[in-house]
């Protein structure tokens, strides 16, 4: 219990280091060393019922992950967890990570992934919920999630926005978790407060290719034009130096 308390006291929120006001940096430390790091911007879109003109209508609460949140976490060899709470624990986000092996063409390789997301919220909290019908605490979670798949020893990076659906199984509309500007590493951190080499998400890789492809095509086109001009110049120079034989036979008498 003493060791667990000491580990919890070492959990740090480094949100002040992020230049983006909508993005937080979270660090979990155990035994005085960093074992999990996460940096991202997050927003939840939560549908809820409320009364309007004596009618029950559906509203939508947009809940950002506030700065200055309380951070807890657990680190393990193959399982890690990050827990973030804000507004006096009215809202709590829990991320679960799993490291496992996969058979590939190159043999057995280790990967880690985001295996589960859980979000708890209180509709009686008045900052984002206005006169909610039957207010109270709710918990929604992901189902069969396998996201942010990353080779072991690397951090996951993705600037593009990603959406994860969370539901409670009571036939209510799903809660949408919007993640962007993500950098996460839940295992194998080798330097304190420092991410390992990044593994970019497919969307970022495709966007990077789309940005560089026009430049590459422009360089190739420019090279083709230069080569064409050079060949034309050489050909023109060679043909200009050749003796021109008259095609009109009457001109042969002038040749001697």
Characterization of this structure:
18% of the residues lie in helices and 45% in strands. Strand 6 and strand 7 form a beta hairpin. The chain starts with a helix and ends in a 16-residue tail after the last helix. The longest helix has 39 residues, at 202-240. It has 2 domains: 9-199, Porin, CATH 2.40.160.110; 201-238. The mean pLDDT is 82. With 256 residues, it is an alpha+beta fold. InterPro entries: Lamp2-like_luminal (IPR048528), Lysosome-assoc_membr_glycop (IPR002000). One of its GO terms (biological process) is establishment of protein localization to organelle.
SSE blueprint:
Blueprint: H1 2-9, E1 12-13, E2 23-30, E3 33-52, E4 55-64, E5 70-74, E6 79-86, E7 91-104, E8 107-122, E9 137-141, E10 147-151, E11 155-158, E12 162-166, E13 175-185, E14 198-200, H2 202-240
Parallel strand pairs: 11-14
Antiparallel strand pairs: 1-2, 2-3, 3-4, 3-13, 5-6, 6-7, 7-8, 8-9, 8-10, 11-13, 12-13
Structural class: alpha+beta
| Shape, principal axes of CA atoms | elongated
What would CATH call the class of the largest domain?
Mainly Beta
Roughly what is the average pLDDT, rounded to an integer? 82
Architecture of the largest domain, CATH level 2?
A: Beta Barrel
Helical proportion? Answer: 10-25%
Number of strands: 14
The ordered H/E elements are HEEEEEEEEEEEEEEH
**And the CATH topology of the largest domain?**
Porin
Organism: Trogon melanurus
InterPro entries: Lamp2-like_luminal, Lysosome-assoc_membr_glycop
GO biological process, one term: establishment of protein localization to organelle
Subcellular location: Cell projection, Dendrite; Cell projection, Growth cone membrane; Cytoplasmic vesicle, Secretory vesicle, Synaptic vesicle membrane; Early endosome membrane
